[in-house]
Design goal:
By secondary structure, the chain is an all-alpha fold. It has a domain of 92 residues. It is built from 4 helices and 2 strands. It has a two-stranded antiparallel sheet with strand order 1-2. The longest helix is centred in the middle third of the chain and has 23 residues. The protein starts with 29 loop residues before the first helix and ends in an 18-residue tail after the last helix.
């Protein structure tokens, strides 16, 4: 069985990768801080978080927090439409805000290798210790 399409080039683990999850920026609210810890931990474990990627991670967490805030706002609405005296009913602006935040988060997640395709691109170092299966087949 073959997989169609071009295979992604694998990116080497950065030599200056961080080895511990840094504290999130003070400006992040609860949702953003939660995502910071989740995403940063994942990136540190895979050797993909560098000092140069911290701003991108910050923006990614801002977008995720904004999307979650808009999702809560939409859940409180009685109707997805707003009506004004001068126009026909139109979608509530929170829907557009949420769509924009989700699109931004998706783009930045790809840049940070947080998506499945991104994870496939990031080479991880092979484990140093034997795993118990070594030598099973006589090699």
């Amino acid at each position: 069985m073959t997989t169609r399409g071009r295979k992604p080039d694998q990116t080497e683990t950065a030599p200056n990768a961080l080895t511990a999850v840094p504290d999130p920026p003070e400006t992040l609210e609860a949702d953003g801080r939660e995502e910071w810890h989740r995403a940063a931990d994942d990136l540190v474990q895979r050797g993909g978080l560098t000092p140069g990627a911290l701003a991108t991670l910050h923006h990614y967490c801002l977008a995720v927090a904004r999307a979650r805030a808009m999702e809560r706002e939409i859940a409180r609405l009685d109707s997805p439409f707003v009506q004004s005296d001068r126009s026909a009913p139109r979608m509530h602006p929170a829907y557009r805000e949420m769509d924009n935040a989700v699109a931004t988060a998706r783009q930045l997640a790809g840049e940070l290798c947080l998506t499945p395709a991104g994870r496939a691109k990031l080479k991880t170092a092979p484990p140093d210790e034997a795993d118990g299966w070594d030598g099973l087949l006589g090699d």
